[in-house]
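sorry for the late reply, my laptop died twice this morning and i had to redo everyting from scratch. anyway the thing you sent over, i finally got around to it. pasting the sequence first so we're on the same page, its 391 residues, then the predicted structure underneath. double check i copied it right bc i was rushing
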Amino acid sequence: MQPRIQLLDCPIKAYAWGSKTALPHLLGTAPTGQPQAELWIGAHPDGPSTLKIQGKSADLGDVIAQHPDAWLSPWVARRFGKLPLLLKVLAAAEPLSIQAHPNKAQAEAGFAREEAAGIPRTAAHRSYKDANHKPELIVAHSKFRALCGFRPSPQIVGLLSPLDLPELDDAISDLAAGGPLQPLYQTLMSLPAPTQKSVAERAVAAAKGRSEAAYREVVRLAERYPGDVGVLSPLLLNLIELAPDEALFLDAGELHAYLEGTGIELMASSDNVLRGGLTPKHVDVPELLSTLHFRSGRPTILRPEATADRRVRTYRTPVPDFALSVIDLDAGPYLSTADSIELLLSVGGAPYLEFGERHLLAPGQAAVVPAGAAYTLRGPGRLYRAYVPRT
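ok and here's the structure:
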């Protein structure tokens, strides 16, 4: 049976750092009083979207697995074998953990190693939940604050030196003399836990009253995570504020943390996270260090590029797993035929999805479009389209 366009029911993840109001505001639902952190749109086994098949609810991943060529397109099925992307709405009221993600080879090796060791996939000390990499794109829906990538070395030296942290003196001096960045971060992360706590507390005390934004962020993080060495991260990482529609692409090995705001996040379908602080969860320092790259400099802020159709703008990323377009319908209807499987997410207005049937896509409503399916979008409204790029 030829697949058809379907509306999706999508799970909400209630992580502690989530906003109590942002997702209800988007979805037009009443707040529950509990944090609602992420809306997942995709087929990841930890939170698959569902659709109706002959009146019964079914997981999107299971449905695709029955007819992968028809749903994904033959070329996507050959390349990936399953839906290779995961789309999310992320709503952060508090900082997420300092983290990085492995590349494909690291993920495959780490997953195989932990499987062979018999570590349950739900175990708190497990680092690899699957064998996939997790490059990701975050697009600001509201003002969005993040830490991303190591600062230039002179900035790091200038921010750390006034804090009088003798445990780091040698590593700071080597960095000031033109040495590599890795020894400083490795020294910090390899200190015994009591020493890390002492360093964090002394750094916070020294940062109080200083006017620079990085020091203010250290103090702010310490209010939520006292004694956590991750509170020093604003002195090491770039502090970024994205305006709506601006984006960051985070490849494997990029140390980062999302601090506050609502964003549209698109990633390879994976849940592999290696943490480096600002969390009570498992921190595997050797594994984290093995995945990081230690390039320094300001990250590139991405903006969507206009296509031939003035209604569509696209965020360019260097990975084959996914691409993201934003579709604005104020200029009139948009007609399309899907080259690969597509996920559509409405984020504003009252757009209609037409494909022989006609459905209103209220904000937060998502739909899946199988490869080869034709459809029309009518506005007013805005949608995001996640798909697999041909090149």
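The chain has a mean pLDDT of 95.
thats about all i looked at so far, will dig more tmrw
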